[in-house]
Amino acid sequence: MFAAGFIQRRAFSASARNLSKVAVLGASGGIGQPLSLLLKLNPKVTELSLYDIRGAPGVAADISHVNTKSTVRGYEPSSGGGLAEALKDAKVVLIPAGVPRKPGMTRDDLFNTNASIVRDLAKACAEHCPDANILVISNPVNSTVPICAEVFKAKGVYNPKRLFGVTTLDVVRASRFVSEIKGSDPADENITVVGGHSGVTIVPLFSQSNHPELSSNADLVKRVQFGGDEVVKAKDGAGSATLSMAMAGARMAESVLRAAAGEKGVVEPSFVDSPLYKDQGIDFFSSKVELGPNGVEKIHPLGPLDAVEEKLLEACLGDLKKNIEKGVAFTKA
Predict the structure, then answer these.
(1) Where is the Lactate/malate dehydrogenase C-terminal domain (predicted)?
(2) 164 - beta bridge partners?
(3) What is the average pLDDT across 138-152?
(4) 159 is in an annotated binding site
(5) DSSP 3-state assignment of 118?
(6) Which one, of 137, 165, 23, lies nearest residue 89 by Cα?
């Protein structure tokens, strides 16, 4: 049983079946290291494959001493078969690679550096594990997920059901922030968050929670939308949200693995190729996604919104469309 029970108090089952190889690209970074540790504790992972431009073999050696059954191997570009070997036979690939935000930076400020990194890693995934579930953490997610999609399309292996932008942290933050206001257990606060994964594109739907009155709490809404800024400021140039993001990434990976093993009714928020706003030229959108053995099983509609949320959604869609177009334009250029 996993000691912390970090995923909604669900203990991992030691008897889990359909165990699989999971790869982390960017494993020696601020998100990659704690993410890899959390995945090592998951008995559904039989093999943990860690890759980075440097440092991954050391991270792998360290984590391999944790007394769970999975094997851990680290790869660098110049050793051990490199990226190709790291991705071979992977069922789930998590991509936290990239540079972190610093004070004053937006996620879009990261675009020029991280877009190239994600593009190159997506090319490798398309070549070496085209059927894997790809979980993109690298910011700006609103743009990096479309980049991955375009790369997979160019390679002729795009499967929209297998590509996910990890927006779980927005839901995690919303439940925690509400619990602080209400004095409740965050595990009991089920807050739906939709849209994208950056600033005003993050839309919490408090009207659908146990506390619909919070929809008019502008400070709370802003905190959910810009919660990452709190961490960037507090770390004072030393990084961004790494530990909480690692937890959110591990939770998303756990949900994908549970669904792949045949568990029914697994629902997680995720930024995916979605029909919800395609008529407005928005191909990707985050909402509740029901997962299955083949990845995306069903994309849930948003449901009724109040007047405040309608305005938030309108602002979201405008920015989100620009973010997506930016990612697509990058790959075509």
Answers:
(1) 167-330
(2) 135
(3) 97
(4) no
(5) helix
(6) 23
State the Cα–Cα distance between residues 122 and 130, nearest whole angstrom.
Answer: 9
Q: Give percent above pLDDT 90 in the chain.
A: 86
Average pLDDT, the chain: 92
What is 168-332's CATH topology?
A: L-2-Hydroxyisocaproate Dehydrogenase; Chain A, domain 2 (3.90.110)
Confidence (pTM): 0.93
Over 60-108, what HEC string results? HHHHCCCCCCCEEEEEECCECCHHHHHHCCCCEEEECCCCCCCCCCCHH
Q: Can you give the pLDDT at residue 80? A: 58
Name the catalytic one among 65, 128, 197, 300: 197
Kind of pairing between the strands at 71-75 and 45-51:
parallel
pLDDT digits (tens, 9 = 90+) for 103-121: 777 666 788 889 999 999 9
197 tagged catalytic? yes
Is 80 annotated to bind ligand? no
Is the pLDDT assigned to residue 90 strictly greater than 50? yes
CA separation for the pair 40, 27 (Å, rounded): 12
Tell me which fold the domain 20-165 belongs to.
Rossmann fold (3.40.50)
Q: Is 26 marked as a binding-site residue?
A: yes
Tokens encoding 194: 């939709």
β-pair partners for 135: 94, 164
The pLDDT of residue 19 is 59
> Is 234 annotated in some ligand binding site?
no
**Three-class SS state of 224:** helix
pLDDT in tens, 191-243: 999 999 999 999 999 999 999 999 999 999 999 999 999 999 999 988 899 99
- Say if strands 192-195 and 71-75 run parallel, antiparallel, or are unpaired: unpaired
Q: Is 10 annotated as a binding residue?
A: no
